[in-house]
Design goal:
Layout (H helix, E strand, L loop, with lengths): L5 E5 L5 H10 L9 H9 L4 E8 L7 E9 L4 E8 L8 H15 L5 E2 L7 H9 L19
Parallel strand pairs: 4-5
Antiparallel strand pairs: 1-2, 2-3, 3-4
């Protein structure tokens, strides 16, 4: 997974605004989820990782991709996988997913879950291509802390 044109590193607090802008560009932000709070929550959680990717050619170290990884001892989760529009279809998303899967496997994680909105056909096709399938389960949710 070594690509000399791509640098994958841990998220740093100074990446926050760039990551939120990336998520906005990729359509991941919803009015009921405050992305800055999601970042703070992830930084307070030691079970997983939060990575950003930059181009090795970019002196400014601009964030071009991100991924959050979680593990609860039973299942892993992958959230906020985002790749800037100009970099989509270059293999960055696949590389981040493979790296995230390897991270989880190293911890003994037997299964990964992720959520994709039903109407996001391109992203559903991306995960299908990587071997992910729709599980025969219902996804339940309950808001415990409002972000608005």
């Amino acid at each position: 997974m070594n690509d000399p044109l791509l640098v994958v590193r841990d998220f740093q607090p100074e990446d926050g605004d760039a990551v939120v802008a990336l998520w906005d560009e990729c359509g991941l932000i919803r009015p009921w989820n405050n992305p800055h709070r999601d970042i703070l929550r992830k930084l307070a959680d030691s079970n997983g990782a939060f990575w950003v990717a930059t181009s090795a050619d970019d002196v400014a170290d601009d964030v071009i991709a991100s991924v959050m990884i979680g593990y609860d001892g039973h299942r892993g989760s992958i959230n906020y996988l985002a790749v800037a529009a100009a970099w989509q279809r270059t293999g960055i998303g696949v590389r981040l997913m493979r790296q995230a899967e390897a991270f989880l496997l190293d911890r003994g994680c037997p299964k990964v879950n992720l959520c994709v909105r039903k109407d996001n056909e391109a992203v559903c096709a991306f995960y299908d291509h990587l071997g992910y399938a729709i599980d025969d389960v219902h996804l339940f949710g309950k808001r415990l802390i409002p972000d608005d």
